[in-house]
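Residues pack. Consider this:
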Amino acid sequence: MPVTLLVADDHAFTLDGMQRALSQIDGFEVVAVAHTGIEAIAQARAHRPDIAVLDIAMPGANGLEVVVELSRWSPETCCVIVTGSPTPGVLHQLQALGVRGMFVKSADPNEICEGIKQIAAGETVIAPEIQQRLDDEDASNALSERELEVLQLIARGLTNSGIADALSISPKTVESHRASLMRKLKVHSVAQLLIRAVRDGLISV
């Protein structure tokens, strides 16, 4: 019996490329494709594929919502995410839902296909780029409430003295919080700190 797959992505070029690449794997059969999240859910219910390869950002229902629905309507289906730029927090939610694989679209298609073959054999495969994002999110979640307050004020351009006045703490304490932020987020400059904070959704611009 072949390993059956559903492939879902709202970009036709990506969908076609993924479908062709997976169809060329010996023992794999793409039984359905979908351009929206709603269509992916319907196709999964109709075909009950062994593996569903899903984008995160799809109209109708996003990849996270599709994974939740598939756990209800096709629980035997292994879900695999192939994403361009995941929003902060989503990766951990997907992991908690039992997603068996996560890859980035920019990866070599052969690497993605090899990973999906491993998943079909019962393994869980997380691409190194995705694992790094998961580790980064863990670090961001470890920030204290006070550190987040200091970070917000740094983003507003306040000096250590200005932050100290705003929070009624000493400049030395501000410097300690700033050093802790740098250490936890693994950055070495204010510019890197702010870029990382925006990327992880810790501050808005």
User: Anything to note?
Assistant: The first helix runs from residue 12 to 23. Strands lie at 3-8, 28-34, 51-54, 78-83, 101-104, 125-126.
